[in-house]
Amino acid sequence: MSDSYDLVVIGAGSGGVRAARIAATYGAKVAIIEEYRVGGTCVIRGCVPKKLFVYASRYKDLFEIAPSFGWDVGTPSFDWATLVANKDKEIARLEAAYVAGLEKPGAEIIRDRATVTGPNSVKLRSGRELTAKTILIATGAHPFIPDIPGKELGITSNEAFHLEKLPHSILIEGGGFISVEFATIFSGLGVHTTIVYRGDRLLRGFDEDLRVGLEAGLAARGVKIIHQTNVLGLRQTGKDITVSFSDGVDAPFGAVMFATGRSPNTAGLGLEAAGVELAWDGAVVVDAYSRSSVPSIYAVGDVTNRAQLTPVAIREGHAFADTVFGDKPTAVDHSLIGEAVFAEPEVGTVGLPEHDAATHGDIDVYVTRFRPMINTLSLKSDRMMIKLITRPDGGEVLGVHILGPGAAEIIQMAAIPLGMKATKADFDRAMAMHPTAAEELVTFKKPSYVYRGGQKQ
Fold first, then answer.
1. What is the pTM of this model?
2. How confident is the model at residue 41 (pLDDT cuts 50, 70, 90)?
3. Which of 176, 219, 375, 445 has the least CB density, counted as fewest CB within 10 Å?
4. Three-point CA angle 129, 264, 181, nearest 5°
């Protein structure tokens, strides 16, 4: 049995769904193949359930400050099973919405596993064979698990959303956003939480003030952070898992989670046999229009490892459909991508961090730190940080970095003027909205310090 399509999409995550939907809207005959659930990592076991769990973990902080506003909340209690069940209901609702969004313009959803058998052919596990003028690979990525003894005893972010019960303690290996977000979740829900990271500070590549402030905030919430150390092995000891560290220490934990990066899902897809060039990490190598080394095969999203972020995959999927089926060649600009880390404290960042901006010539740096207003009636001493990096004398804004409540929401708006190459003078023209934290972005008067000739002054 053979079926012919204009487009076959492999993977119904954020990028694949957007590409399939837009291509179908343009009139293409589209099939999208998914072996698990429609929605991909973000909807099913990524950013959406993660954000819901982060919300749950933040109630601990709210209960702590409630008495300062006159509220008596008694002794709060938390039920993990209720959170998981309500999360599952929301994920099911979103999956149904994604399915409807595909079916309305006429895309066919095929629940199966696919293998690419040639530049224009795909074979399903069921035996069905499809041909397509264009094939789009949108298979995403999966958590990387270190090859160490006892690795099967650990979990990843995938399993964390479905634990039957919360462990009494957890060790999270890794120093990226997945690690710190889940540390926030588990610690906020009452789990004794430890992060172990091979580097000297979390969130490598982020602005240094964000990294320092985040670690301080995590520590204030009881998260223990072990630097410059690796996990060498795991072994079961009773109900606990004993971890052997590279510094010679062994310690027991109720659970161990690997947050050590994500690898593109290309194994077993038949891409190499079809002539598709893959990078050293298995990522599909593509050009600015998401086309692979085989002209009829494209790829978008995490499987290309350009930027493993849901909005990037969506933008790439839409641009692909515009290019191939909408007669509107569109290349996605990856040069200015804001990032949000839903830890506690929250991190929002767009543009150049200070250490990069300082290599681009003279810059002015504006920094302020203050207690968020919501904490001022209580004894909580958390600090918020807002940093603006600009060209000298009211010049172009090169970076905005925020640590604290609402950081991601503020950064989303800050990304718009940065994309327009706004200057410090443009920011200054905006009237402050008081009392807000974001008003600090438009009320900086003098730089906190400057770089001239590559030297900090």
1. 0.94
2. confident
3. 445
4. 130
Q: Which of 227, 318, 401, 434 is catalytic?
A: 434
pLDDT higher than threshold 80 for residue 133 = yes
pLDDT over 90 at 223, yes or no:
yes
Query: CA-CA distance, 297 to 107, in Å (whole number)?
Result: 19
pLDDT mean across residues, the chain: 95
DSSP result, 392-420: TTT-BEEEEEEESTTHHHHHHHHHHHHHT
pLDDT in tens, 393-444: 999 999 999 999 999 999 999 999 999 999 999 999 999 999 999 999 999 9
Report long-range pairs for 127-130 (Cβ below 8 Å, ≥24 apart).
Answer: 127/1, 128/1, 128/3, 129/1, 129/2, 129/3, 130/2, 130/3, 130/4, 130/5, 130/8, 130/31
Comparing CA positions, the residue from 42, 57, 18, 13 lying closest to residue 158 is: 42
Q: Pairing mode, if any, of strands 255-258 and 114-118?
A: unpaired
| Spatial contact of 156 and 318, defined as CB atoms under 8 Å apart | no
Kindly tell me if the per-residue pLDDT of 1 is higher than 80.
no
CA atoms within 13 A on the CB side of 131: 4
User: How far, in Å, CA of 57 to CA of 49, rounded?
Assistant: 12
Chain mean position to CA 197: 18
Residue where the block lists tokens 């009773």? 238
Tokens at 75, concatenated = 């002794």
Active site residue 227: no
**What would the pLDDT profile of 46-66 be if each residue is shown by its tens digit?**
899 999 999 999 999 999 999
